[in-house]
Model the fold of this input.
Amino acid sequence: MIFYRNKCLHLTFSLFFLLLSSNVWAGSNISAICMIDMDMSTFSYDGITLNDVETGISAGNGNIVRIGILAHNVVNLYGYEIRLKYNSEKLQFIRGIEGDPSKGLNNILKKEDGAEISWMPPTVIIPGTVSISNSLKGTPSESIAPEGSGILAIIEFKLLSNRPDNGIMISNAQFVDVQGAGDNQQADNITHLFHGMINPIGDVDGNGMLQLTDAINILKILSNIYEGNVKLASGDIVNNDKIDLKDAISLIKHISMY
Ligand SMILES: [Ca+2]
Ligand SMILES: [Ca+2]
Ligand SMILES: [Ca+2]
Done:
């Protein structure tokens, strides 16, 4: 009798979980990654390694920053929708493009021969939120849907301030594979996300703050004893295309004022 009741309970639970799981979509892109590359001068997006993806860059008021929105580990990708969040008092959205073929930066959905896309130019939907959306044209087909890594979009922002804490976040990323495409579209909600940060010029160590250690690091660079990787833009405060003593002095003056 107990066995029978347990069996009934087991059946009820099984049915319950079956119903529950039928409402939860898990497509082939559940373990894909969506990330922001803050420095598009370093790339080889066909086989993305973490060395190609910088999560921070140094820039100052008035500069234009061009960032890459990238996908990694995708399977039979048919389309995607992404939302970026940023502080509209510190950044102004300029434009978004699907890729930049003149620089060898092609959209991931154009990886296979003959692939055509339905690219929607990214727009600001509310202040501080940009929406990106793209998909393959026509009937979903595995032969044309790409695998691996590539560019989802290239976005340009203009800096409106020199203030720190200037981040760009992927607030939502949904990838649709060939199976999930169609009238009842089913998307994978991407949870592996790399966000981006714009650091103030002078932030040599890239910790988001201008501190005396950054000035000391400039002096170390000049003495060839700095051990980290330094990009010119992060230390060239007095803008003359080199890191020199003027930059260290300017930074010390700036720090002593605040
Ligand atoms: Ca890069
Ligand atoms: Ca710093
Ligand atoms: Ca300089």
Observations:
- The first strand starts at residue 33 and ends at 37.
- Residues 1-9, 11-23 have pLDDT under 50 and may be disordered.
